[in-house]
Write a structure and sequence with these properties.
Elements: H1 2-17, H2 20-31, H3 36-48, E1 52-55, H4 62-73, E2 77-81, H5 88-92, E3 93-98, E4 103-108, E5 115-119, H6 126-138, E6 140-143, E7 146-149, E8 155-160, H7 173-176, E9 181-184, H8 190-201, H9 214-224, H10 231-245, E10 259-261, H11 265-281, H12 289-300, E11 305-306, H13 308-312, H14 317-327
Parallel strand pairs: 1-8, 1-9, 2-5, 5-8
Antiparallel strand pairs: 3-4, 6-7, 10-11
Length: 331
């Protein structure tokens, strides 16, 4: 009985505290036409304190989406265009000698912002990628002998073009694992594209005003951590991840030759965190199995390694996740 009362109180509190989500979504929709999964993924990453890897062809409003989100939250935004000649110092900053003061001074790089857009991350060499990914994991930057904490919230949105692979440096599996979500963006629908044309040929671009502060987001994150996850849901998450590692134990013998490696423990953690944020966005104080299923593709897509046999048979990670979700018993 006590648990029921607690959940009811939590539900009422989260309904009250999550009211800003609708305002954020409306603000995004003023500028971004369609792309609902992209907007939802940005909110999940923001509230669950996770970074996002976006994959889609150019021109699908990836840059505009994160820029608009930063404007709505009155946060610092920076954009880094990754190129083959980029250096780690161009991202994190460097020491510059001041002749006037006769000492080295630190010039901070564009990574020192709340929202960082790493455009075409796979176009920069491994040394630059690792400099960014270290900042994502440790939330700090070391320049010379000084270590600087990055300001909160800190969200990296990295993009990569899946079509053009010439002159790129693909992210290794261990580095993609640091992204909470990998979101695939598709073309807009016909009606949405007509609206996009109409908006752009008039030359009128919607201006958005800040509706939240950085401290509001930090408070919201603390509330998201209170969203209730039942032990049955935890078991369900573990079963999904284990089914990607040992498919034969879940009656998926046909997947065994297709999977090179399954999701890491980071997959289980991020599945729980993302499901919590998804529940919060939908104004619920508890996680249901549908929340886990809704975020499962974005969380696991980049964490399952396929064999050559899978590629030869045109089996994708999405196919594997679908088979897993169909096989694992829902609580």
């Amino acid at each position: 009985m006590q648990t029921v009362v607690d959940i009811r109180e939590l539900q009422e509190r989260i309904e009250r505290e999550s009211s800003f989500v609708d305002a954020l979504s409306q603000g995004m929709n003023q500028v971004i036409v369609g792309q609902k999964p992209l907007v939802e993924s940005l909110l999940i990453g923001l509230l669950a304190d996770g970074h996002i890897l976006l994959e889609g062809v150019p021109g699908l409003a990836k840059t505009l989406a994160i820029k608009t989100l930063a404007q709505l939250i009155k946060a610092d935004f920076s954009r880094i265009q990754f190129t083959p000649d980029l250096l780690p110092a161009d991202v994190i900053g460097t020491q510059i000698y001041s002749q006037k003061q006769e000492e080295f001074r630190v010039k901070k790089g564009p990574i020192f912002a709340n929202f960082v857009l790493a455009d075409e991350i796979n176009r920069a060499p491994a040394k630059v990628q690792s400099a960014l990914l270290e900042a994502m994991q440790e939330r700090q930057i070391t320049i010379g002998e000084q270590t600087y904490k990055l300001q909160e919230p800190f969200l990296v949105l990295a993009t990569q073009n899946p079509v053009e692979q010439e002159g790129t440096y693909p992210l290794p599996e261990a580095q993609t694992d640091r992204f909470m979500l990998k979101v695939k963006i598709d073309y807009p629908k016909k009606e949405e594209e007509k609206l996009i044309i109409r908006q752009n040929i008039t030359g009128h671009t919607a201006e958005v005003a800040p509706i939240l502060t950085v401290s509001d987001i930090i408070n919201a994150r603390n509330i998201v951590r209170e969203v209730y996850i039942d032990e049955k849901i935890e078991r369900y998450i573990v079963d999904i991840v284990f089914a990607t590692r040992y498919p034969e134990a879940y009656g998926l013998e046909q997947l065994k030759p297709m999977i090179n490696f399954g999701g890491s423990p980071r997959a289980s953690i991020n599945l729980a965190l993302a499901a919590r944020a998804y529940a919060f966005i939908h104004r619920r104080g508890y996680v249901v199995p549908e929340d886990v299923r809704a975020v499962c593709y974005d969380v696991l897509r980049h964490r399952i390694g396929l064999t050559y046999e899978a590629e030869a048979n045109n089996v994708t990670t999405e196919d594997v996740i679908t088979e897993v979700l169909n096989a694992v018993q829902v609580p």
